[in-house]
């Protein structure tokens, strides 16, 4: 919950935003000895040697998967903002992205240099697992897009500092955490999972529909209210896919289901953030360029990215209002991504079985 607050405080201080990452090293340095000393070591009986277990890890698959995700995010982040979509740099990125994903697919299909694949592709033939895969990606995307967009809105529209804008993400974060915590024991009493996903998608559709309409005049209270509704919707299902998937398979397949849904979570996080960034930067840059003719796209892009270029201070008050209105409107457009995800989630939820899990 306090992550955005700590990050915002570092960003506003002389320590700079880099300490938002450095602080994790300090935390790890303190927690690692505690884990080694206090967490009990439980050895599971197995006939496999340590070397054999190490060889079973899909190192090549992990590298190729990471490379594919990174290259895809680069396409979405650089296209139209850093480079023209038809430029040589982008064509090179398109080519490398296709090659990396093709190599990953071939390596996974033939289990090249691995015993256990990082992506258990055989689960993709199971409709229930496909449904859970999409929902896992949709849920994490809903959270990431909101956490990315809201601070931008508060900083540009209201002129808030990084710390102050982070404070206004707390209602959303708290509602997600609280509803996720409450959802666990409630679900154990009512383990018919279809209504949970359907209800979540309905709340997500309503809240993101409201968020997509925010503009320069929308109050902080209204935005916080919309996000609380959104958090209550997405919180209970953020990890529900794992519960359902692991319950519906035999015990020996549970690790494969976990890997399958973890890939969905990683892909949903990376792709949603990449798409949201691309939509916001490109649409906002085009609109500001129309308001301020003669201003280069590079200068506008740098200003939107947080570089103190003085863009808003070197224009007339009327033009400044138009620019801020444009930025606010385009931040609202980013939530169309969540609306699309929630709509897809509703359709997939309606096709789920109305069955009771045996927990």
Task: Explain what you see.
By secondary structure, this protein is mostly helical. The chain folds into 3 domains: 1-34; 55-118; 120-359, Growth Hormone, Chain: A (Up-down Bundle), CATH 1.20.1250. Helix content is 71%, strand content 0%. The protein contains 15 helices and no strands. The protein has helices spanning 3-12, 19-38, 50-55, 59-78, 88-109, 127-157, 162-167, 170-189, 193-211, 220-234, 240-247, 254-291, 297-304, 317-334, 336-350. The longest helix has 38 residues, at 254-291. The chain is globular. The model has no long low-confidence stretch (mean pLDDT 90).
Short description:
The longest helix has 38 residues, at 254-291. With 359 residues, this protein is mainly alpha-helical. The chain has helices spanning 3-12, 19-38, 50-55, 59-78, 88-109, 127-157, 162-167, 170-189, 193-211, 220-234, 240-247, 254-291, 297-304, 317-334, 336-350.
Topology:
Layout: H1 3-12, H2 19-38, H3 50-55, H4 59-78, H5 88-109, H6 127-157, H7 162-167, H8 170-189, H9 193-211, H10 220-234, H11 240-247, H12 254-291, H13 297-304, H14 317-334, H15 336-350
Task: Describe the structure using short key phrases.
3 domains; Growth Hormone, Chain: A; mainly alpha; 359 residues; 15 helices
Shape: globular
Q: How many domains is the backbone divided into?
A: 3
Strand content: under 5%
What is the CATH fold-level name of the largest domain? Growth Hormone, Chain: A
Tell me roughly what share of residues is in helical segments.
over 70%
**Structural class designation:** mainly alpha
């Amino acid at each position: 919950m306090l992550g955005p607050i700590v990050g915002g405080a570092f960003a506003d201080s002389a320590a700079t935003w880099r300490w938002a990452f450095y602080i994790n090293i300090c935390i790890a340095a303190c927690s690692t000895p505690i884990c080694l000393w206090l967490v009990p070591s439980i050895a599971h009986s197995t006939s496999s040697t340590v070397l054999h277990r190490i060889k079973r890890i899909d190192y090549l698959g992990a590298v190729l998967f990471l490379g594919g995700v990174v290259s895809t995010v680069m396409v979405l982040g650089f296209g139209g903002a850093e480079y023209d979509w038809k430029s040589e740099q982008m064509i090179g990125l398109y080519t490398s992205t296709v090659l990396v994903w093709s190599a990953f697919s071939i390596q996974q299909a033939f289990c090249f240099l691995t015993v256990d694949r990082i992506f258990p592709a055989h689960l993709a033939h199971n409709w229930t697992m496909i449904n859970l895969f999409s929902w896992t990606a949709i849920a994490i995307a809903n959270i990431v897009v909101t956490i990315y967009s809201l601070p931008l809105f508060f900083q540009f529209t209201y002129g808030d500092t990084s710390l102050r804008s982070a404070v206004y993400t707390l209602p959303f974060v708290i509602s997600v955490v609280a509803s996720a915590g409450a959802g666990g024991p409630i679900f154990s009493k009512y383990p018919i999972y279809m209504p949970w996903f359907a209800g979540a998608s309905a709340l997500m559709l309503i809240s993101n529909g409201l968020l997509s309409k925010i503009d320069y005049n929308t109050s902080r209270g209204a935005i916080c209210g919309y996000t609380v509704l959104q958090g209550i919707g997405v919180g209970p299902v953020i990890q529900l896919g794992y519960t359902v998937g692991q319950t519906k398979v035999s015990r020996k397949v549970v690790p494969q289901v976990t890997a399958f849904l973890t890939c969905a979570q990683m892909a949903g996080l990376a792709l949603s953030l990449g798409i949201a960034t691309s939509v916001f930067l490109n649409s906002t840059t085009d609109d500001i360029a129309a308001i301020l003719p003669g201003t280069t796209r590079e200068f506008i892009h740098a200003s939107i990215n947080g570089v103190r270029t003085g863009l808003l201070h070197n224009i007339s008050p009327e033009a400044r209002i138009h620019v801020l209105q444009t930025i606010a409107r385009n931040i609202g457009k980013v939530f169309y991504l969540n609306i699309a995800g929630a709509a897809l989630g509703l359709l997939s939820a309606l096709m789920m079985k109305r069955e009771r899990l045996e927990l």
